[in-house]
Every structure is written in structure tokens, then in C-alpha cells.
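Aim 2, interim progress. The first record below pairs a target sequence with its C-alpha cells.
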Amino acid sequence: MSKRHATIEYNNNNEIYLTDHNSTNGTYYNGVLITNKKPIDPPGVIQIGTLEIFVGFKEIKQESKQDKKRKSGDTAINMEVSPK
């Protein structure tokens, strides 16, 4: 895995983009090699080497200290990271 292997971007339109930064072994989303900035559609799995990142949307039910800055009805990205 590279020091800056890939970037995950999220915008106000609930769009998620995945960009590989010319890594040696690549970045995959649901088994497809990502070569440029690509939109991704959760739920899905980002694979970087032996690391798998599960990406999905989760509705915000309760307001926590971290969520107070978000507006009501916003959506959060839920990611779980596990070794392969």
C-alpha cells in the first residue's frame, strides 16, 4: 500500500468518488480496477492490497456531538475496515 494510495471524496449531493493515485497494485471497487476519479455507488467494497473497506450509507437517527454540525436529514457514509 502506498503512503497516498487513493482518495475517497464525498460531496453535498451524496455522491462518492474514488481516485487511485497511480499506485503500483491498484485500487479496486467491487472487483473493478479504478484508474482515474470514478463515482462509486454504495454499498460496495474498496480493495487496496489486502485491505477491504466496506462502504454504505446510513441514515442519521440521533444527533451526537460530531453530528451537530450536520443538517437534519443528511446522510453519513458508513465505512468498515477489515483485513482480508
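The second target in this work package is listed in the same format:
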Amino acid sequence: MFLSQVVNGAVLPFVLIFMLILINDRKLMGNFANGPTFNLIAWITVIVMIALTLLMTIDIVNPGSSDVSWIITGRRIPKVPPQMHHPLRGAGLSSELQK
């Protein structure tokens, strides 16, 4: 199931571009074609989706290389040491449980 969602996310920008081309065709859509404001919002959304898809692809090929936490927080978030990812290690548990 996870792989199908990754493929859906990777294909989504192409589907959105095709939809925008169709919905902007006045011959096809008539009065229901997009106006300039909605077109601007839609194309910005497509560009953001393409950027996120590229980041996802880079992260799949080279894990950890697309650290963009600084965009959200304004500073780099230090990486957590691998031993901290284990649920029983580094969590302040007794030494018997950490072995």
C-alpha cells in the first residue's frame, strides 16, 4: 500500500498539468474555463507539488540528503543519533531493558 501512495504522489503533478490544460481550453469548457486568478493559484500549486515530488525522489534515492527543516523552522535541526531511534534505548529506561 505504501508503494502505491508513493507512485500516486509522483504521478500527481502530471495529472494536474493535464487537468489545467483541459480546463483552460475555452473551446472545450466554454464559460466554465478558468479565470486568471484561479489559474495563478492552480499553477503555483502545481509548481509546489513538483518541488515536493522532486524532494521525495531525492530523499528516496539518497536518504537524508533533502533535509529542508530549515525552511520551516529557520534553522537546521540536528540529526538524532541512530541509537535514539530504538524504542528501548536512550529513553531513560533501566539498564536491564536497554540490553
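The chain has one domain: 2-98. This observation will shape the mutagenesis plan for the next reporting period.
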